[in-house]
Amino acid sequence: MSEQRFLQIHFLTPYSSVLLNRDDSGLAKRIPYGGYLRTRISSQCLKRHWRIAEDPHALKMIDGAKAAWRSREIVDRKVLGDYRGTEDAGVLGELEKEFNKVVYGDKGEDKKSRQTLLLGDVEIDWLRKEAGRLLNEAAGDSEAMQKLATQWSKNGRENFRAMRREAVLPGGLIGALFGRMVTSDPEANITAPVHVAHAFTVHAEESESDYFVAVDDLALADETGADTIQETELTTGLFYGYVVVDIPGLLSNLGGDSVMAGEVLHNLVYLIAEVSPGAKLGSTAPYSRASMMLLEAGNRQPRSLAEAFRTPCSPEADQAIKALSNHLASLDEAYETNEARKVMALTNVPVPRAGMGTLGELADWAGRLPGQPG
Q: Is 69 exposed, middle or buried (0-12, 13-18, 19+ CB in 10 A)?
C-alpha cells in the first residue's frame, strides 16, 4: 500500500451542565443544522485548548518542539523586554518603532493597528540578537540609535524574510500545525496541515438559564437575601468533532522530520480525546473524554461524517455511533475509498472495517503513519 496522505479523526464527546464556548452575548455558541439548532464549539476554541494543554502529551513535550507566541506586543515584551530598565527609554523607543514596522508592517507603530501575530522562538531570538547588536553600536545615544534603527529597518524586513526561509519551524510547532496568516507579509504565511471543524451536538440543543446567587458571609442577621443575583446559560450535549491532518503538508512544515511528525500525530490523538475546553472551570468542572474516536488513513479527499447527524439522533453514545456507522457504510458502498481504520469506543457498536483498540493503540497507529506504508 502507498503512503497515506490524510489522517481523519472523528470523535464523540459528552458534556453535562456546561458553558464551553460563548458568543459575544455570553450565551453558548450555536449552529442550525438539519432544521434544528445545535450547541457548537468553535474550531478556534478547540485548537487553543489543544495548543496550550498542560498535559503529559502536550505538544510542547515533543522533542525538538519550538515555542511560539501570538500577540500584538511581541517586540515590546519578548524582543526588548530584557532591556527595559537597563537601557535609556528614548533609545529603546527608537528601536521599538522600527522593529514593530518590520514585524507588523508599515502600521506597526500603532498597537491598535497591528495584527495579532504568531512568531516562533527562532524569529524572536533573531530579532533579540539584532536588537542587542544595535544597542551596543548606539551606546546609549538616542540620535545614533535613530539613524541605526532607520537604516536597519530598510534592510531588516528582507533580512527577516531570509532568516525565515532558512529556519526550521520559523513559526514554532504551533505554526507548523495550525498555520499562520501575516497580512503585512504573505511570504511569512504558513499553510495549516491540521484542519479542525466546529464541533456540534448530534441532537437538538439542550440548554437552560441558570439562576444563581452569591451570599454575603458577613451580612448582619437582619440583612437577609442574596448579595448578588445573576443568570448564566448551561448546556448539555454529545458533540461530534472532526479533524483532518494533511500528512505530507505536516512533514513539509516540519522540514521532513518524520519522527517529529509521528510524535505530533501520537500526541494529537491523546489531546483530542482527553482535553476539554476550559470555560467556567470553578462552577461547572467541564471535564470529559471522548466516548468514541475513529481514525481513518487514506489517499483520497477526506470527508466529514457530519451528515450522519443531519437528522438529530438520541443523545446516547451507542445511538450516535450507530448513526455514524450506517452513514459510513453508505459512503463505503458508494465511493469505495478503502481507508484503513482504527476505533476506540466505550460501547460495543461495530464500525465498518475498523479494528478496535485502546486510545494508546490508536495513538501509536497514528504515530506510525508519517513516511510509512499504510
A: middle
pLDDT at 293 over 70: yes
Measured from the Cβ of residue 300, the count of other Cβ atoms closer than 10 Å reads 12
Q: How far apart are CA 95 and CA 47, in angstroms?
A: 34
Contact (Cβ atoms closer than 8 angstroms) between residue 341 and residue 295: yes
CA angle 256, 261, 263 (to 5 degrees): 145
Of the candidates 103, 122, 240, the residue with the CA atom closest to the CA atom of residue 184: 103
pLDDT tier at 331 (50, 70, 90 boundaries)?
Answer: very high
pTM, two decimal places: 0.92
Q: What angle do CA 364, 370, 373 make, to 5 degrees?
A: 90
Rounded to a whole number, what is the largest CA-CA distance in the chain? 79
